[in-house]
Specification:
mainly beta
Length: 88
């Protein structure tokens, strides 16, 4: 996946650091809240976090979870290793 594919789902963008490298963290809206992969999956409005690849800028290299509430998603993002600040 790449950042362009996230499009209008991005509601906040953060900057994270790893040594001298910086990368972006994207807090996005979603309509899918995964459970364990069985029947617990839900089709609801929720939030998810995606992490940009440090080397292949513009590509997403990892996800950092799905959250039912925006406050939980913001807290998780800000608690991520290397989180520095929101840029929007």
């Amino acid at each position: 996946m790449n950042v362009a594919e996230l499009g209008d789902t991005i509601i906040m963008t953060g900057i994270c650091g790893y040594g001298i490298k910086q990368y972006r963290l994207f807090l996005c809206t979603s309509t899918f809240l995964p459970g364990t992969g069985d029947y617990e999956d839900q089709e609801i409005d929720c939030y998810c976090i995606w992490i940009e690849d440090m080397i292949n800028v513009g590509n997403i290299c990892a996800g950092a979870g799905y959250y039912e509430h925006l406050s939980d998603a913001i807290h998780a993002a800000e608690s991520s290793a290397g989180f520095e600040r929101w840029i929007n």
